[in-house]
Task: inverse folding
């Protein structure tokens, strides 16, 4: 054994080298002019950790917390930079339509004026007695949203839609040879009471005409807060809460003109029925989304609970040879004229399903279906009285209403 005094040591040089059997360290100590060499071997092999390749990483192996949400092993796409979205959709939707009583009739029997009435085989309804305005109409919907965190756990979204106005138009005219009339209902049988307003009939009326116009307008929107309820693999479910608004308006005008043969008096009558509905509600719901390859599938289900403000306006006018009759009345707008308003509790469920295809990380094309329902809506056709024999004071007659149809759109994420 060689002892090297600490105070005599001028320097120490340590060199390491590896051998096939283990590891050896060579120590060289310099003492004056004499060099002492020692070699120590470690035969026990050193364990070296094998690096894990990127492709071997699994979601469950990630141990670090998410920078954005702080959750251990966050499964969401926290590294995606797109936190805002704007969606523009073309709508092709149908609506319930307007239910109308018979408003214009004709008869194949031109011999008896009393046969120009409903209920006879010789009478044909020209317009009314059915639901009109149910055809598909185009519209649009805009959706804007913003994620409040990078992990897409909570967001604020606003949507607005408007359908194209559904218009109703009908007109008929007769010089007198072909019977033409506006039907009414008699609850008290009286042979002297007409069962229609005669506009054209041989020997009684000439130059008769009737014109019916109407339209309906539907729009709405909501503001929603999204909160992640649960997520699993490639799917997520969000809880929704927010505010909903809708407006459903209808207008209907019936005007006629006739010349009475005996007096050559030209008489014109107009009836107008307008309704307006405004829905204000709070809403709750769920939204489910699933991802598969370049596709995204969404399902929406929500319901609003709130107040439906219903307004009905009824007015009529009559003129003889251009001179207004006072007080102003129509054929169907009599003692029921005026402005009427009521508030009713209503519910409005909505469901929707959409399939979207990713063109890239920021643009999607979508196609889907939507259905919206309101439990209490005042419509123009439901407030037309047909009975002239008894007083008919106004009374609300509200019913359910719905719209539904197809959607096609483009979604931008940025």
Result:
């Amino acid at each position: 054994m060689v002892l090297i005094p600490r105070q005599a040591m001028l320097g120490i040089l340590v060199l390491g080298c590896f051998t096939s059997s283990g590891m050896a360290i060579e120590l060289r100590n310099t003492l004056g002019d004499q060099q002492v060499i020692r070699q120590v071997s470690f035969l026990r092999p050193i364990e070296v950790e094998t690096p894990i390749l990127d492709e071997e990483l699994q979601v469950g192996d990630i141990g670090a917390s998410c920078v954005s949400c702080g959750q251990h092993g966050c499964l969401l796409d926290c590294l995606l930079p797109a936190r805002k979205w704007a969606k523009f959709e073309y709508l092709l939707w149908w609506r319930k339509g307007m239910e109308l009583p018979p408003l214009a009739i004709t008869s194949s029997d031109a011999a008896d004026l009393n046969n120009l009435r409903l209920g006879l085989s010789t009478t044909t309804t020209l317009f009314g007695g059915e639901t009109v305005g149910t055809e598909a109409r185009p519209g649009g919907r805009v959706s804007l949203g913003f994620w409040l965190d990078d992990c897409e756990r909570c967001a604020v979204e606003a949507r607005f839609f408007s359908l194209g106005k559904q218009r109703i138009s009908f007109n008929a005219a007769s010089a007198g040879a072909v019977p033409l009339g506006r039907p009414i209902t008699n609850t008290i049988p009286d042979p002297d009471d007409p069962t229609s307003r005669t506009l054209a009939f041989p020997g009684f009326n000439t130059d008769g005409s009737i014109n019916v116009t109407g339209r309906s307008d539907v729009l709405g929107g909501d503001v929603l807060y999204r909160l992640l309820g649960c997520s699993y693999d490639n799917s997520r479910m969000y809880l929704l809460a927010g505010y909903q608004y809708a407006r459903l308006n209808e207008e209907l005008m019936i005007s006629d003109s006739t010349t009475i043969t005996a007096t050559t008096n030209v008489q014109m009558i107009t009836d107008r029925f307008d309704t307006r509905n405004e829905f204000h509600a709070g809403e709750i719901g769920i939204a489910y989304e699933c991802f598969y390859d370049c596709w995204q599938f969404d399902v929406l289900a929500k319901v609003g609970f709130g107040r439906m403000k219903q307004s009905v306006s009824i007015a009529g006018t009559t003129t003889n040879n251009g001179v207004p009759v006072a007080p102003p009345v129509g054929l169907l707008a009599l003692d029921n004229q005026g402005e009427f308003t009521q508030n009713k509790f209503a519910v409005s469920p909505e469901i929707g399903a959409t399939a979207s295809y990713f063109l890239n990380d920021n643009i999607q094309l979508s196609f889907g279906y939507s259905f919206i329902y309101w439990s209490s809506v005042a419509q123009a056709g439901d407030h037309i009285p047909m009975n002239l024999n008894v007083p008919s004071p106004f009374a609300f007659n509200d019913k359910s209403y719905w719209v539904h149809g197809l959607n096609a759109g483009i979604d931008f994420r940025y």
